[in-house]
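pasting for ref
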Amino acid sequence: MTELKTDKEFADDSSGQYEQSGIDKFISIILCRGDFAKQKLDAKPVSFFQLFRFATTCDCFMLSVSALLAIFTGIGQPLICLIGGKLTNVFLLTKTFERNDAFWYQAYIYVYLYASVGITMYICAKNASLNITCTMRREYMKSLLRQEAAWFDQQKTGTLTAQLNANIEKIKDGIGDKVGMILRGVTMFLTCVIIGFIYDWRLTLVMFGTGPISAALLSTMARQTEHSSSMQSSIDGRAAAVLEESIMNVKTVAACNAQETMIRRYAATLKACRKFALHAYAFAGFFDGLFFLVLYVFFAVGFYYGAYLYQIRTITNPGFIFAVANLIMFGSYNLGVLSPHLMAVLNARVAAAVIYKIIDRKPSIDSSSTDGMKVNEVTGRIEFQNVKFSYPTSKEHLVLNGLSWTAKPGDIVALVGHSGCGKSTSIGLLTRLYNCNSGAILIDGINICDINIHTLRNIVGVVQQEPLLFSGTIKENIRFGKLDLTDQEIIDACKIANAHDFIDKLCEGYDTMIGAGGIQLSGGQKQRIAIARTIVRNPRILLLDEATSALDAESEVIVQNALKKASVGRTTIIIAHRLSTLRDSNQIIVLDKGQVAEIGTHKELCNKKDGIYASLVKSQQFEEQQKPKSPPVEELPSETFHRSSVRDSHNSSGYGIMSSFTRGSIMSGNVTCVSIPEESTEKSVELNGKKKSKPKGLWQLYTNCHGNYGKIITALLTSILRGMELPLFVLIFDLTFAVFAQAKLESTLERILPIAIIYIALGIACLIVIFAATFAFGWTAECVVDSLRLRAMRSMLYQNAEYFDTPSTSTAVTVTRISVDAPNIKAALDPRMMQILNNIVATFVLVIIAVMFNWPIGLLGSGNLLLLILMLTLIASKMQKLNKCALKEDLTGQLALEIVEQIRTIQLITREEHFHRLYVRKIEDLLYLQKKSSPYEAILFAVTSSFMFFSDMLSYAAGIALIYYGYSSPQEIFTAAWSIATSGWALIMVSGCLNTFVMASPASNSLFRIINTGSGMNDVDEGLRPAIKGDVQFDKIKFSYPTRPQRNVLNGLNLTAYAGQTVAVAGPSGSGKSTVIALLERFYRFNSGQLTLDDNSITKLSLRYLREQIALVGQEPILFSGTILENILLGTTDKTLSDVREACKIANIIDFIETSPKGYDTEVGEHGGQLSGGQKQRIAIARALVRNPKILLLDEATSALDAECERTVQQALDAASSGRTCITVAHRLSSIQHADQIFFVENGKVVEEGTHQELVELDGKYADLIRKQDLSL
C-alpha cells in the first residue's frame, strides 16, 4: 500500500527537478513522455505503470490479455503488406492467371482472427480501465471525506469537483484501449521493419530512419505541448469555479446587476485557457505535418534507391520494392497516427498526478482514523487551557490568544462577544475541525487530541447557524443523526424541536422530498430539522452556534424551551448574538480579542454597568416607555405560528443573498442529486415560456457558430485539401507502378526521379495543410465552445428564479451539465472532426478513382464500403443510445458536489462512511451502464481492424479473374484495388474518432436546451426609466410559487412605504416577509394585484433600471472569489475608491480593511471564507450602500453581527436610510423599533400595522414578540 504523504512532502515533490532513469527513459521514448523534469506542473507526473496502481488482479489479467492481443495484431497486420508484395510481383512479372488459393484461405483466416482478437482485446482494455477509474473515484472521495477543515479552507470546491470529473475522464481515456493501440502501433512498426529486412536489408535500412525520426518528432511535440496542456487544465479548473459560484449564487448576481461582470470574469478566464490550448494545437499541427513530410521524403528516397537496386539487378523482383516501401510506410504511418493516443496517455499521467496528490494526502486531523481513546461515558466537563489559535490562511493573526475557561458537567455556558472574537472558533476547536496552536482542550480531564475523532464528534453535537440539509426526505435527513432510528424516535425528536406540526401537515409528511438543500422548506423549518437531527444523536455535550437565528421570536421561544429540555443532563455551549436567549445560562463568558474579558451570570454581568456585556444588553433592550405593559402571555400553541406549509423557503429566502435557493448553493453546500431526464428539462423550458422543440443535434451546433464561420470555412477548406493526400498518394503510386511495369530497365532510375520529387512535394503540402487544418479546427473548437459556455452562463444568469426551483434544472444540475457537455461538444469541432472530414473526403475521391481505373473493382469496393458504413452507423446509433442513457442516470457529479460542499456537516455528524457508500453505489450504477456499451465499441474496433483483409480479399480475387479473362490490365487492377484498400483505411480512421463524436450530439442537445431556455435576458433593458422617488405600494397582492401553485404565500397583501420612510415587516417564519422583497426584486411574478413604484407598475419598469434603484442586504452574506474591492463594486461601473471608502465607513468595516496588510486588495477567499460572518455581512452592506440606492431592502441584515457591531451598523443603516425608502425584515425586533411604520404579517396578510409605540399599545401579536425578546431584568 502506498504511504500517505504530508503537505510538506507534496511541496517537496512539486518543487524539485524530476530526472528520468532506466525503464522510465525507455517509456519516455516509446510513449513520447518528453522531459517532464523541466516543466513546473501542478503535481509531479506519475510514471506510466503508476497509472495502473489501483488495478486488481482481475484488471491486471484483462490488461495483460489486451496487451498480448494488441501485440499479436501488431505482428499480424503487416502480413497484408507481405501478401500485397507477392501479388505485385504477379502483376508485374506475368500476364497469366495464377490461382492463389493460399491467398484466399489466408485472407479468410485473418478476417475471422482479427474480428475475434479485436473484440477480446478491446473489451478487456475497456472494462479494466472502467474498473480502475471507478476505484480511483472511490479512493478520491474517500480521501476528500477524511481531510481536515484547514485544508478545505485553502481549496476551491468547484476546482475539486472539476478535477475529479475531468481528470478521471482523462485517465480513463489514457489507460483503456489507447494502451492497446500504442502497443499495436509500436509492434506493427517493428514487425514491418523486420519483414522489410527479410525482403531486402539495404532498402529497409535506407527507409528505417522514418521510425526513429517520427518518434523524435512526437517526443518533441510532447515536450512542447505538455506545459500548455497543464496550464490549460489548471486555468480550466478556475473557469469551472467561476461558473459554479456565479450560477449557484445567481440571485445575488441578479440583485447586483452583476450578470455581465461575472460573464466578463468567466470570459477572461476562458480566454486565458484558450491561449494555451491554441499553443498546443499549433505545436500538434506543426509536428504532425512534419511527420508526414519525413514519411514522404523517406518514401521518395526508398523508391529511388529501390529503382537503382532494381536497375543494377541487385533486386530482381520489383514487388519487393513495393513490399518494403509499403511495410515501412505502413509501420511508420501507424506510428504517426498514435499521436492522439500518446497524448491521451500523457494527459492521463498528468491527471493521475493531480488525483493521486489528493488520494495520498495525509490530513493533520484524519476523520477516518481509528487511533485514540474510545470513551464510553463522559460527564461533560470542558476546559480550555491557555489555548492559542490562528487559521492556516492567516497564521500571523491569533484568533484565540491564551483563552482559558471551564464548563462544569450539565451547565449551560454562553459565549458572547463581538464578531471575530473567537466564539465560533472555539466550537471548531472543540469538535477538532482544527487543532489549536498551543494550549489544550480537555473533556473530563482528557485532552481531546487523545480521543478518537469519531468518538469525540459523537460525544459533541453541533447545531450551526446555517442549517445544512441534504437532498432526500425529511426522515432521511433526521436519520443522518442516527442511522438506526425508528420512525417513532424521529417523531419524538421532531416534537422536541417543534417541527412535528408543520411536517405532519405536509402531503407526504416525513417522506416529503425537501429538494436541493431543503429548498422546499423555510429557513426556520430547516433549522428545526437540523436541531432534531442533533437531538437524536443524544450527545453529552451540545454546541449551539446561533442555533435559533433563523427563527422568528415566537418559534425561538418554543425551540429554546425544547433545547432546554434537550440540554438536561448534558453540558451545553451556546453562541448567540440575540442575548435574550442567554439569560438562563449558568455562566456567560464574554470574549474580547481571543481572551476572556468577563465571566458571570446574566444578572451579575448586567450589574457591571460599564461592562461589555451590560452595554450589549442595553443595546438590545427596547426603550422603557415603549414596552408592553401587560404581563407576558403564556406560550401559544405552535400551530398558531406554523400554519404555513412547507414552502416558504422563498419566504425566508426568496433571493440569492439569503435564499433557500442560495442555501442550496455553494455557500451551504446543499446540492440536489437528481437525474436529468430530458422530459423534465423540457417541461421546465415550457414553464419559462419556451415552447418545447425537438432537439436538432449537431445541426443546431453548426448553425450557432456566429462570428466563427470564417474560421469554419478555413477549417473545412484545409480539411478538404488534407483529404486529397491519400488520393494523390494513390495516383503517384500508380505512376510508380507504371515505371516498374515498363520494359526498358535502363530508364527506370531516370523515370522514377520526378516521381520521387512529387512525393517530396506532397510531403511539403501535407506539412502546410495539416498545420493549417489542425490549428483552424482547434481555434474553431475553442472559440465556438467558449462562446457556447458564455451563452449558457448568460442564459442562466438572466433566468427567472422559478426555473431553478425545479429539481431537474436546479443550480447544481445546470452547473454539471455545462461543465460536462461543453468539452464533449469539442469532438464535433476540433481536430477529431478534421480527421473525420478529411478521411470522408479521401474515401469519396478514392472510390471515384477506383471506378475510373476499373469500374467492376470500384463498384465491388463501393459496396464493401457501404456495408462497412452501415455497420458503423448501426453500432454508432446503439452506442449513442447507451451514452444518452448513461448521461441521464449519472448522478455522480451532483453527489460529489454535494459531498464536497457539505463536508464539514458530514464530518461533524460522522457520516463519512455513509456518504462514501452512497457515492460508491452511484459510480457502480454508472459503471454498469458504461460496460454495456463496451461490446459495441469492441465490435466497432474489430470490424475496422479486419476490414482491410476482407476488402483486399475481394478486390484482388476479382482482379485476378478480370486479368485472366483479359478484361483489365494489372496496372488498372492494382490501382483500383489499392484505391479501395486505402479508402477503407481512411474510413477506419473515421471510426477511430467515432466514440467521442457520438457523444457530441446528446451533449449539444443538452447544452442548447440550457441556452435556448426562455429567460427574459432581452427584456432587462426594456421598459420605463422614470425618476424614482421611492413610493412602494403592494395592493391586494396574491402570490404562490410556480412549483406549488395551490398554496398562496401572499394572500391579498396590502402594504405601503412612502418615499424616505423606513418600513419594517415582522411576523412568524413562513408568513411571507421575504417574499415581499423577492417580488420587489422581480425574482418572481405575482399572481394578481398591483405592485407599484411611484405609481408605475413594477412590471413596466426596465428590470436593470429597477435593480439599479434597489439595493439588497440579506441574512446570509454571499461574497465571490476576489478582493474586497471587487466584491463591493460588484455590478457597478461608475464608482470610485472614495465612494467605496464612504460606504465602508458607514458599514463599520473601514478599520478592518485599512488595517489589513493588503487593504482593499485583500482576497476574501471562496464564498468569503477568509472572513468572519460579521465581516462578510458588513462588506455586503457596503456593497449595497456604494450603489446609493433609492430603495434599501434589508432582510435580517444585521443578524450575523454581534450586539456591539449591530448597534454601530444599525446606526449607520439609520443614517443610510435618510433620503431613501428602507424596507426591513427582522426577527430581532429591537432593530426596527424606530421604523416609521411596522407591518405584522401572518399567513400572507397584514394583521397589524402602526409605529412601534402604537403596536405596543395595541398589545397584540407584535407586543407578544417584544415581551419574549426584551432583556430587562
